[in-house]
Amino acid sequence: MFNLPTYPLQSEEESTKTAYAPLFCWDIANPALARRILIHEDLFALNKLIELYNWSLDLKIKQLLVDNYTMIVTNLNQEITWVSNGFESMTGYTSKEVAGKRPSFLQGKKTNLKTKTLIREKLTNFENIEIKILNYRKDGEAYWCMVKIHPIRTKNNVVTHFIAIEKEVH
User: Per the domain annotation, does 108 fall within a domain?
Assistant: First the structure.
């Protein structure tokens, strides 16, 4: 019998006990499987945040990730604390590049001022908002994005973070 190569199912930062699964050649060549692994990683990370902050999050997260939505979690200062795996493919930025930045860094010269003002007002009042906004990728290319932002509350009804659910639209 031979030993199969393995890959970690979660980052070493997340756990000192890393689970391993065999890596087969069809895993590399199968984009559907790779996508399922990324969705699993996102769900795992979000579940850890839900536990850590005692959030009462009623969104259908798994289905949103399956439907290719990108997610961004910010703290109350609107600094990015977590992004889903789809964020890099949509924007060109890695999670390390955006950690601690405000999502407004994606806005640019042609982003509508009224849209930016409305988002700011809604967040200040801890209100949900759904809006279409012009953002910019790392390479400077503009893209339209449908954004749904929700304040995240604890089970004691205290707002601790925001979650933005985004999808590129045309």
Answer: yes
Residues 14 and 166: their CA atoms lie apart, in Å, by 25
Phi, psi of 40, rounded to the nearest 5 degrees? -60, -45
Rounded to the nearest 10 degrees, how much is the dihedral formed by the CA atoms of 57, 62, 63, 65? 110
Q: For the whole prediction, is pTM greater than 0.90?
A: no
Report if residue 68 sits inside a domain.
yes
CATH code, domain carrying 66: 3.30.450.20
Show the domain range for 93. 56-169
Using CA of residue 144, residue 127, residue 93, residue 37, what is the dihedral sign? negative
Q: End-to-end CA distance of the chain: give it in Å, rounded.
A: 52
pLDDT tens per residue, range 25-40: 555 556 677 778 888 8
